[in-house]
């Protein structure tokens, strides 16, 4: 099958004019040239109006497509009065004299399009004794709904119809007063689960407007399918077809095989082919003459190393495109070392290679220190005895130091290599320096290089931390470094042993205990009162702060009606093991009498209600609440949240009490125990977005980033603790951002003022998502929302262009799961 130049996403009729056929799609992003679109019926050219839309909304709308879609095309074909007498209608893509057919519609197909109601079923499931169906239906007016049994007899049901703002991006002509969304509930008579399922599947939903009718037969799928699987099956088929049109049959078959094998949608070997340095790049690097000739000492301890691995490691260093280096090898294999002949052979061939043979094995730290004592270079580079450095590794280090001579420490991204050296896998694309992530795990690891002079402050490797000696050393280096630089390139291939801590954690529990002690010692050195515990996952650690002070926390909760949600939120706070708090409920435009009666019931020494007059403005409301607060710390909290554990506030406060921390966010879940928030990354969806949305509550995420405390560019204010002093320093939330991005903007202001923003996964809440305020469900609100996006974009343009320092340019911005950039 030929690859299409234009991909059609949807064909429909205009909602209010059945003489207009509308299609949407996009030009294939792999094609350099966009052609012209024309419509014909027989020999007659039809009027075809083309509109192109670009921007954040388009990126977000098509975020799941195989390639980045930045521009969407809407074509509107005007049908002649006698269109039914002239046969099929066709749309062509024309470029360089080549005419490619992209749409063919018979008269019968057009009649069917006009005579049908557009609809989509988002969810269908049996809940206890009733069937619930959620979706939308669009016609030339609000669609009439009916439920019928298999005999066509009407079945009683309850329904709610509401506006769906998300449909505006596809149905641009949708009127403000037309409620397309629906939630249907049907009482099921059957008593047992199997019979209720059968009863539900005998029903059909009838959707009708003035022009036509559509019918959906309820399908709960097979017994072994989850509701989520059933909902996405149709979408998968559609995506598979579009991928076929994009890429042709061969690529689609390969993709399908990868999915069946549960491989990454974009395999790392393909990523390497696309982005790794070429032979031409390496040749140019060899010709580069840097102003500063950095002399690197590569320091490697040896002990009974596999001879082939040792040769591969040394050969990889000899192949470096930057040549000003020395290799310092300390062999702890003893006087009769089996490695001596190999090492002597290499030293004869290349005078840059030196080794010493130790009388006995001094352990990993002692052997490394012996190699360090040999080093004469300006910069020390650490490596292991059986790993591999790609040919551009030292070049990239030299380049970094030539661009900024103030750098003290450099680290890079890395991947793993199979024992036979043929397969590369498990790439770790890292954050820029992230002290809280480093205290959660040794994410820096390899490649690690530092100015030799820093040893005077840090000291060398310590035997008591063997197993995690590099972790301890990296922590000490980072404590004493003023400028820590990250190179977002794979400059190290870590050979994966079956009995290594990476592949078989139980084999080296002592290493994880050494790591725990290393982090705890770090806190002691920097004067922070904290203890470190093992997390549920090997090699990851949890910090528990032990501050003596117990400052007052002012909890700011904006509220409009929904007292059931508010009560649930308050009850979860009351269970907290931290008791020095006050709650300030910021009332805004409630209309139900029960709400105000409830306020009178709950007001006390700990709970105060203040009244904000004016239309909804999240920033103004919270600033108003803060002006009534007495606490040293503010906890901005949505009324539709529920703290899961009693230690939630203590977890947030622990990090927030550190001098350099400006705000702390939590891990938030939807009611189905999937991730709603685990930090914010700049660039997601074109502006900024939450990480790992929809992942299971129990997932680790990319290299543990769901479950590790770490620094991020921002966190959501659905649950965010911040210092009062920091809040006042940056003048609170920006009130020109009424609804969107005000929390991210606040975090950006804090970062600009020198503060860190921390995500703490051990502060866990349910977030039932904006029940109080409602949806952005009118064109006016949509326009305002888009205006706030533009404002945020202008305000933080440089930061958005530069990219999020706590993410990585090798990872995609089109999904929140940290998958590879395509």
Characterization of the model:
- The protein is built from 23 helices and 36 strands.
- By secondary structure, it is an alpha+beta fold.
- It has 4 domains: 6-113, Sandwich (Immunoglobulin-like); 117-220, Immunoglobulins (Immunoglobulin-like); 291-507, Alpha-Beta Complex (Spore Coat Polysaccharide Biosynthesis Protein SpsA, Chain A), CATH 3.90.550; 553-802, Spore Coat Polysaccharide Biosynthesis Protein SpsA, Chain A, CATH 3.90.550.10.
- The strands form 7 sheets. Strands 25, 26, 27, 28, 29, 30, 31, 34, 35 and 36 form a 10-stranded mixed β-sheet that branches.
- Mean pLDDT is 89; it is low at 222-264, 498-507 and 770-776.
Q: Percent helix among the residues?
A: 25-40%
**Structural domains: how many:** 4
Q: The CATH topology of the largest domain is what?
A: Spore Coat Polysaccharide Biosynthesis Protein SpsA, Chain A
In round numbers, the mean pLDDT is 89
* Terminal residue distance: 23 Å
Relative strand content = 25-35%
Q: Using DSSP, what is the number of strands?
A: 36
The CATH architecture of the largest domain can be named as Alpha-Beta Complex
Assign the CATH class of the largest domain. Alpha Beta
What is the alpha-carbon Rg in Å?
31 Å
Could you give a short account of the major beta sheet?
A: 10 strands, mixed
Which shape, going by the Cα principal axes?
globular
Task: Specify the CATH homologous superfamily of the largest domain.
Answer: Spore Coat Polysaccharide Biosynthesis Protein SpsA, Chain A
Q: Poorly predicted ranges (pLDDT <50, ≥5 residues)?
A: 222-264, 498-507, 770-776
Structural class of the secondary elements?
alpha+beta
Q: How many helices in DSSP terms?
A: 23
């Amino acid at each position: 099958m030929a690859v299409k130049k234009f991909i059609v996403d949807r064909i429909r009729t205009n909602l209010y004019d059945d003489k207009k056929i509308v299609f949407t799609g996009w030009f294939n992003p792999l094609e350099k040239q966009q052609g012209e679109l024309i419509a014909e019926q027989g020999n007659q050219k039809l009027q075809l109006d083309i509109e192109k839309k670009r921007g954040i909304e388009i990126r977000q709308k098509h975020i799941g497509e195989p390639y980045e879609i930045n521009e969407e095309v809407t074509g509107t074909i005007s049908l002649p009065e006698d269109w039914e007498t002239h046969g099929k209608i066709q749309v062509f893509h024309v470029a360089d004299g080549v005419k490619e057919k992209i749409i063919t519609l018979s008269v019968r197909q057009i009649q069917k399009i006009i005579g049908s109601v557009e609809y989509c079923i988002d969810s269908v499931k049996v809940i206890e004794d009733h069937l619930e169906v959620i979706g939308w239906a669009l016609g030339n007016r609000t669609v009439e709904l009916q439920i019928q049994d298999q005999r066509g007899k009407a079945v009683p049901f309850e329904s709610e119809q509401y506006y769906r703002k998300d449909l505006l991006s596809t149905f641009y002509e949708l009127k403000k007063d037309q409620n397309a969304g629906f939630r249907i509930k049907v009482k099921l008579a059957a008593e047992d689960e199997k019979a209720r399922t059968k009863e539900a599947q005998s029903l059909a939903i009838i959707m009708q407007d003035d022009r036509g009718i559509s019918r959906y037969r309820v399908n709960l799928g097979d017994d072994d399918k989850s509701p989520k699987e059933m909902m996405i099956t149709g979408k998968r088929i559609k995506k598979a077809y579009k991928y076929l049109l994009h890429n042709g049959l061969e690529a689609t078959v390969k993709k399908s095989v990868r999915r069946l094998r549960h491989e990454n949608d974009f395999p790392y070997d393909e990523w390497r082919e696309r982005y790794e340095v070429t032979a031409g790049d390496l040749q140019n690097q060899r010709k580069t003459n840097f102003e500063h000739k950095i002399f690197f000492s590569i320091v490697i301890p040896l002990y009974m190393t596999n001879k082939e691995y040792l040769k591969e490691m040394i050969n990889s260093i000899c192949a470096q495109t930057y040549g000003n280096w020395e290799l310092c090898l300390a062999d702890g294999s003893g006087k009769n070392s089996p490695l001596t002949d190999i090492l002597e052979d290499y030293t004869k061939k290349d005078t840059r290679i030196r080794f010493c043979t130790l009388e006995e094995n001094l352990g990993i730290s002692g052997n490394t220190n012996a190699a360090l004592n040999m080093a004469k270079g300006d910069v020390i580079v650490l490596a292991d005895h059986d790993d591999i450095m790609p040919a551009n590794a030292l070049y990239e280090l030299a380049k970094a130091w030539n661009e900024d001579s103030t750098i003290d420490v450099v680290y890079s991204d890395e991947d793993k290599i199979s024992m036979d050296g043929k397969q590369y896998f498990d790439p770790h694309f890292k954050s820029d320096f992230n002290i809280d992530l480093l205290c959660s795990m040794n994410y820096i690891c390899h490649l690690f290089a530092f100015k030799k002079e820093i040893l005077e402050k840090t000291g060398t490797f310590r035997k008591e931390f063997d197993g995690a000696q590099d972790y301890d050393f990296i922590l000490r280096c980072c404590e004493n470094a003023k400028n820590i630089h990250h190179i977002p390139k794979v400059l190290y291939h870590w050979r994966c042993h079956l009995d290594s801590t990476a592949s078989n954690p139980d084999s080296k529990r002592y290493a994880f205990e050494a790591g725990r002690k290393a982090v705890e010692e770090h806190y002691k050195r920097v004067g922070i009162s904290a203890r470190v515990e093992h997390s549920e996952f090997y090699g990851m650690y949890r910090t528990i702060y032990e501050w003596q002070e117990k400052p007052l926390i002012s909890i700011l909760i904006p509220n409009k009606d929904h007292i059931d949600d508010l009560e649930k939120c308050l009850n979860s706070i009351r269970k907290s093991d931290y008791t020095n708090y006050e709650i300030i409920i910021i009332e805004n435009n409630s209309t139900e009498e029960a709400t105000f009666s409830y306020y009178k019931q709950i007001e006390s020494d700990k709970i105060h209600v203040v009244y904000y007059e004016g239309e909804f403005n999240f920033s103004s409301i919270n600033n108003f609440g803060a002006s009534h607060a007495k606490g040293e710390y503010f906890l901005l909290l949505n009324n539709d949240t529920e703290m899961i554990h009693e230690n939630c506030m203590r977890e947030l406060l622990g990090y927030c009490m550190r001098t350099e921390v400006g705000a702390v966010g939590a891990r938030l879940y939807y009611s189905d125990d999937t991730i709603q928030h685990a930090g914010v990354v700049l660039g997601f969806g074109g502006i900024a977005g939450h990480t790992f949305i929809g992942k299971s509550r129990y997932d680790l995420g990319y290299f543990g980033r769901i479950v590790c405390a770490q620094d991020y560019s921002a966190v959501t204010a659905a649950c965010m603790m911040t210092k009062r002093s920091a809040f006042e320093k940056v003048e609170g939330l920006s009130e020109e951002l009424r609804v969107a991005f005000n929390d991210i903007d606040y975090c950006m202001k804090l970062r600009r003022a020198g503060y860190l923003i921390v995500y703490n996964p051990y502060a866990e809440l349910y977030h039932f998502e904006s029940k109080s305020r409602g949806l952005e469900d009118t064109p006016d609100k949509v326009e305002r929302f888009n205006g706030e996006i533009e404002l945020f974009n202008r305000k933080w343009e440089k930061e958005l262009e530069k990219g999020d320092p706590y993410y990585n340019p090798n990872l995609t911005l089109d999904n929140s799961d940290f998958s590879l950039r395509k």
